[in-house]
């Protein structure tokens, strides 16, 4: 999955939409990343993000292989 497609899913249905797509393996993180979420874009890339407030405001902190 590409980052652009990931952004489309977030814009349309928020984090709930990400949770519905199993290949994204969307999950909450713990430890130093507690409060953040992670999605697998493909076998090589993962995006780490945080949703702030009750509005749909996604802040991407890391996009890495």
Main β-sheet description: 4 strands, antiparallel
Structural class: alpha+beta
CA(first)-CA(last) distance = 13 Å
Return Rg in Å: 11 Å
Residues in helix, %: 25-40%
Oligomer: single chain
Secondary structure: number of strands? 4
Question: Descriptors for this entry?
Answer:
65 residues, 28% helix
Summarize the structure.
By secondary structure, this protein is α+β, with helices and mostly antiparallel strands. It is built from one helix and four strands, in the order αββββ.
Structure explained in plain terms:
By secondary structure, this protein is of the alpha+beta class. It has one helix at residues 3-20, and strands at residues 27-28, 37-40, 46-51, 58-64. Strands 1-2-3-4 form a 4-stranded antiparallel beta sheet, covered by helices on one side. The radius of gyration is 11 Å and the shape is globular.
